[in-house]
Amino acid sequence: MTLTNPLPNQQDLNFECETGNYHTFCPISCVSWLYQKIEDSFFLVIGTKTCGYFLQNALGVMIFAEPRYAMAELEEEDISAQLNDYQELKRLCFQIKQDRNPSVIVWIGTCTTEIIKMDLEGMANRLEEEVGVPIVVARANGLDYAFTQGEDTVLAAMAHRCPSQTIKKKKEKSLVLFGSLPSPVTTQLTLELKKQGIEIAGWLPSQLYSELPVLDSDVYVCGVNPFLSRTATTLMRRRKCKLISAPFPIGPDGTRAWIEKICSVFEIEPKGLEEREFAIWDSVEDYVKLIKGKSVFFMGDNLLEISLARFLIKCGMVVYEIGIPYMDRRYQAAELELLKQVCKEKGVPFPRIVEKPDNYSQVQRIRELKPDLVITGMAHANPLEARGINTKWSVEFTFAQIHGFTNTKDILELVTRPLRRNAKLEDVGKSQHIKFAMD
């Protein structure tokens, strides 16, 4: 297999689709960050022992006091419909209410519940009345969704529970942001918009279930993450909100474009954004020097790939390929436009975008292209490192604080770490070689 011209010049972005498999983490892992974000919630994952083992291994490495999630394990009798699922779930929900008294219980459906056609929504409606606690059903199974889309299904389900404006009166435009971010980051983005004179009416999800934002046709909504296309669709179609299509606030260029787009919808002239962006670039100049001219290859895992690639191209890197598990071109339209704009500004060819990439084919391309860095899922990191290829776990970008102006350094810290580490190892190797030669 030969790739004589890995980045051919082209007039538009080139989209390809390969195997149709999701080579990613399981989406039920979304409970690890959502239960922390929604402080009065409890997450109940309904699945088999395999799901339980996954949660133990994936989330067991995180040490939290009193985690608010549990596993309802389906036995063989449940799967063969010999037991009464309703009675068992009822018992569990009453136990959760007694022990933890949450404001909302979120049922996370897994692959098994899909395969055996469990009527989770039907049972939840009946149980909600008996238990006296709202029960939200989200199908975060790995058959249909990639890693971070677990959050997408939860937020889409929660959007149905947001209150509507009871008294219809003429009011000014209001803005609701959707996407789960750590509290310091939501505060930063809220303050950035406040500087421009825009007050945020609420976040989805909110820190408390009782504080879910009001949604109706007078509300403008804007996403902060590229993997929330189902939530965006639900907000538009079911709640009649108006979606602001903007690039995502990742990197100083994306953050500036995100704020500018929101300002344009609210008919506000943005102030000081250009200076703010330049100041951030100046503050990370040492990091940018390390990666300028180096190449990167995204294997695809968490759906942040387009935004990260756009930012790294802005930093001067060459992006050979953007692998991504799922691509909603409508929801990411503004981000894709910014990607094209950045490529033209830097005078570099558009990178190849591969949806649902075939990992075997990707490894062949990596061997041929020899990128300086591969951003990949954890399953492929060690095999690639063993072949002398620098890697970075994509999951680290999911859990790190990468949004907004002030977190630009955190993205570059993650990207440059393997390059800096291996450069140090080479220096150690050289010094050892000199020492042995002298001996």
Automatic annotation (TrEMBL):
<dbReference type="GO" id="GO:0009507">
    <property type="term" value="C:chloroplast"/>
</dbReference>
<dbReference type="GO" id="GO:0046872">
    <property type="term" value="F:metal ion binding"/>
</dbReference>
<comment type="subunit">
    <text>Protochlorophyllide reductase is composed of three subunits; ChlL, ChlN and ChlB. Forms a heterotetramer of two ChlB and two ChlN subunits.</text>
</comment>
<comment type="function">
    <text>Component of the dark-operative protochlorophyllide reductase (DPOR) that uses Mg-ATP and reduced ferredoxin to reduce ring D of protochlorophyllide (Pchlide) to form chlorophyllide a (Chlide). This reaction is light-independent. The NB-protein (ChlN-ChlB) is the catalytic component of the complex.</text>
</comment>
<keyword id="KW-0411">Iron-sulfur</keyword>
<feature type="domain" description="Nitrogenase/oxidoreductase component 1">
    <location>
        <begin position="26"/>
        <end position="417"/>
    </location>
</feature>
<dbReference type="GO" id="GO:0036068">
    <property type="term" value="P:light-independent chlorophyll biosynthetic process"/>
</dbReference>
<dbReference type="InterPro" id="IPR005970">
    <property type="entry name" value="Protochl_reductN"/>
</dbReference>
<keyword id="KW-0560">Oxidoreductase</keyword>
<dbReference type="GO" id="GO:0016636">
    <property type="term" value="F:oxidoreductase activity, acting on the CH-CH group of donors, iron-sulfur protein as acceptor"/>
</dbReference>
<dbReference type="InterPro" id="IPR000510">
    <property type="entry name" value="Nase/OxRdtase_comp1"/>
</dbReference>
<feature type="binding site">
    <location>
        <position position="51"/>
    </location>
    <ligand>
        <name>[4Fe-4S] cluster</name>
    </ligand>
</feature>
<feature type="binding site">
    <location>
        <position position="26"/>
    </location>
    <ligand>
        <name>[4Fe-4S] cluster</name>
    </ligand>
</feature>
<keyword id="KW-0602">Photosynthesis</keyword>
<dbReference type="GO" id="GO:0051539">
    <property type="term" value="F:4 iron, 4 sulfur cluster binding"/>
</dbReference>
<dbReference type="Pfam" id="PF00148">
    <property type="entry name" value="Oxidored_nitro"/>
</dbReference>
<protein>
    <recommendedName>
        <fullName>Light-independent protochlorophyllide reductase subunit N</fullName>
        <ecNumber>1.3.7.7</ecNumber>
    </recommendedName>
</protein>
<keyword id="KW-0408">Iron</keyword>
<keyword id="KW-0479">Metal-binding</keyword>
<keyword id="KW-0150">Chloroplast</keyword>
<dbReference type="GO" id="GO:0019685">
    <property type="term" value="P:photosynthesis, dark reaction"/>
</dbReference>
<feature type="binding site">
    <location>
        <position position="111"/>
    </location>
    <ligand>
        <name>[4Fe-4S] cluster</name>
    </ligand>
</feature>
<dbReference type="GO" id="GO:0005524">
    <property type="term" value="F:ATP binding"/>
</dbReference>
<keyword id="KW-0067">ATP-binding</keyword>
<keyword id="KW-0547">Nucleotide-binding</keyword>
<comment type="pathway">
    <text>Porphyrin-containing compound metabolism; chlorophyll biosynthesis (light-independent).</text>
</comment>
<keyword id="KW-0004">4Fe-4S</keyword>
<comment type="similarity">
    <text>Belongs to the BchN/ChlN family.</text>
</comment>
<keyword id="KW-0149">Chlorophyll biosynthesis</keyword>
<dbReference type="GO" id="GO:0016730">
    <property type="term" value="F:oxidoreductase activity, acting on iron-sulfur proteins as donors"/>
</dbReference>
<dbReference type="InterPro" id="IPR050293">
    <property type="entry name" value="LIPOR_BchN/ChlN"/>
</dbReference>
<keyword id="KW-0934">Plastid</keyword>
